[in-house]
Design goal:
Elements lengths: L14 E9 L5 E9 L8 E7 L9 H11 L3 E5 L17 H15 L5 E11 L2 H11 L5 E5 L4 H7 L7 H19 L21 H10 L18 H6 L14 E6 L5 H10 L4 E6 L6 H4 L6 H11 L2
Parallel strand pairs: 3-4, 3-5, 5-6, 6-7, 7-8
Antiparallel strand pairs: 1-2, 2-4
Helix pairs in contact: 2-3
């Protein structure tokens, strides 16, 4: 079962974790955790990493797993709850937005780059699942981000616009948008916000599709459960992702390096493979044998921490 403090992992004795908060440029208060290695003098300036949660996830889950490990390897690491989600501020709850979620990464750079114990010229990003596309999108225009790792990336704008494996027809998309438009009228006149279906079903049975089964085995079971991670967003959020693509300027990141990490059996691997082809130099694609999409959220025997350490140390020198 998860620990009583709702983190899904045990904090290393070699790491400190501090709860912090700051505002993004929209004035939303961001709830975050700051991880630091105990073995390093307070006078030392360390490279820093920002770890973004999967789409629908929170900082106490996979981001904390990564932060706990990378702090042991000599990095200061910041994890955060996205705006309008988790313990971060913002109303209506569980809203999502391409601009807001990309801004959250730049706001994290604002915060961590002004810490006296951080070398602001050595700041990198790890984006898990949807945060892979948000972190890349931020790096397109925020040159303070010197290197990006995506893990099991979902391009959320492409997913909303085209469906899984780009299978959404124009007729299906138009019908969906018409339904959302009618829901906006209802909400404007007082109805409660409609929510998308839960991405990770609580009840997993013989009729549950393989992707739902995979997400449910993490988010809806003790392995990854957190009460703030409902894997749902307001229905009216979706059109923004259709209208505003996240990765149109991916080549602008070059020559800053990108490492795309995917599981061999990940249902999402085509997002990373296609982004890899779009990206400029320097870039690398790493396939983890035997892993699926969600395995790389928390399975420390599969997550390539040695590679992440070498990648960022190489990028920062």
């Amino acid at each position: 079962m998860p620990a009583i403090d709702n983190y899904i992992f045990t904090l290393s004795d070699a790491v400190t974790r501090e709860s912090v908060s700051y505002k993004n440029r929209y004035g939303v208060t961001i709830s975050a955790d700051l991880y630091r290695p105990k073995s390093v003098s307070d006078l030392a300036t360390l490279p820093a990493l920002i770890v973004g949660a999967p789409y629908g996830g929170v900082k106490e889950q996979g981001p904390g797993v990564y932060a706990n490990e990378m702090a042991q390897r000599g990095f200061t690491v910041l994890t955060f709850d996205p705006s309008f989600n988790g313990y971060s501020g913002g109303e209506v709850r569980h809203l999502s937005s391409p601009d807001l979620f990309v801004e959250d990464f730049s706001a994290a750079v604002d915060f961590i780059g002004t810490r006296p114990f951080v070398d602001r010229h050595k700041i990198g990003v790890i984006g898990i699942c949807g945060s892979g596309s948000f972190g890349l999108s931020a790096a397109q225009v925020d040159r303070r981000i010197k290197a990006v790792v995506t893990v099991s990336m979902y391009d959320i704008s492409r997913y909303h616009a085209k469906g899984f494996h780009d299978a959404l027809t124009d007729e299906e998309r138009n019908g969906w948008l018409d339904m959302i438009a009618e829901q906006r009228y209802a909400e404007f006149t007082g109805a409660a916000p409609a929510m998308t279906p839960r991405g990770a079903p609580m009840d997993i049975g013989s009729k549950t599709d393989e992707i739902g089964r995979e997400f449910g085995a993490f988010y809806s079971r003790p392995r990854g459960y957190h009460h703030n991670s409902i894997t749902q967003f307001t229905m009216s959020s979706a059109p923004s992702f259709i209208n505003f693509a996240l990765l149109n300027h991916l080549q602008w990141i070059s020559p800053r390096p990108i490492l795309f990490v995917i599981g061999e059996h990940a249902h999402s691997r085509y997002f990373s493979e296609d982004a890899f082809e779009m990206a400029g130099e320097a870039k690398e694609l790493l396939v983890i044998p035997g892993a699926n999409h969600v395995d790389l959220y928390d399975k420390t025997d599969l997550i390539p921490f040695d590679k992440l350490e070498r990648f960022f140390n190489g990028a920062f020198h």
